[in-house]
Amino acid sequence: MEAYALLLAATLNAGTVLALAALGLLINEKAGIVNLGAEGMMLCAALAGFATVVHTGNDWLGFAAGMGAGALLAAFFGVLVIWLNTNQYATGLALSLFGVGFSAFAGIRYVQEKLPPRPQFAIPGLSDWPFVGTALFRQHPLVYGAVLLAVAQIVFLYRTRAGRVLRAVGESPESAHALGYPVRRIRFVAVLAGGALCGLAGAYLSVIYTPLWVEGMVAGKGWIALALTTFATWRPARVLLGAYLFGGVTMLQFHLQGLGVDVPSQVLTMLPYLATIVVLALISRNPTWIRVNMPASLGKPFFPGS
């Protein structure tokens, strides 16, 4: 039973990286913006967070640095696609490629660096319970923070005026503009918020999940997070559940290896990506379902006054 408790704990830990990034991308897409640069933003943020902790010894400063790096890259992306009307898909891909190359170049000196001893977290009393104590109550605070973030997003998007305006901008920016809402500024703020959350996911990856810096360490998680928004049909609660599903698939490979299952390691390593393809293929069989839930103006440029 202890092995399964550890597997569940690892699943929540791995899913947190995907959840934070996917919830950030969800904000972008609810405003009608597609950002394919998540992989690059997460890599730069992972480097920024790791480097900050190396020099300061403070994890929370590392998270702040990661969020800042993600928001900075997102701001650059936002200016290009929102005000200069560049193609969202091409610009996002360029941002991703830039992040991969820049993080590899700037991170050379940090490959051999080590972080201070990692703190252990436990909720007093609850962490001593059999099974659930190990599985649920010995997690980093950001694991619980991701759950609270999903709840906060649900409340924001569906229970507040600002959230309804954001969704209106994603559905029909022309109508929102006609009602006097600053569509471009709203989209830009959404892009900044999404970039900051992708940055937090990248910093969590390098500071907590795998406390080290290695070139390309995000290893496709940005693309999986992007796919999660479609998998979840743009609903925060489903994003959270999907993140834990993919986190579980990721951890399953290590669990199977630990049990001595005679499967080539390459097959186990590709499980998360294979699961992503299978899920998207299944969803795409019902395009009407996607079209009903997808923001109507997703990926479409907006020209005020046109």
Automatic annotation (TrEMBL):
Protein's membrane topology: Multi-pass membrane protein
Record keywords, A-Z: Cell membrane, Membrane, Transmembrane, Transmembrane helix
GO molecular function list: transmembrane transporter activity
Protein's UniProt keywords contain DNA-binding: no
GO cellular component, one term: plasma membrane
Annotated transmembrane regions: 6-26, 33-54, 60-84, 91-111, 141-158, 188-207, 213-232, 239-257, 263-283
Cellular localisation: Cell membrane
Name of the protein in question: Nucleoside ABC transporter membrane protein
Pfam families: BPD_transp_2 (PF02653)
The organism of origin for this protein: Tibeticola sediminis
Domain of life: Bacteria
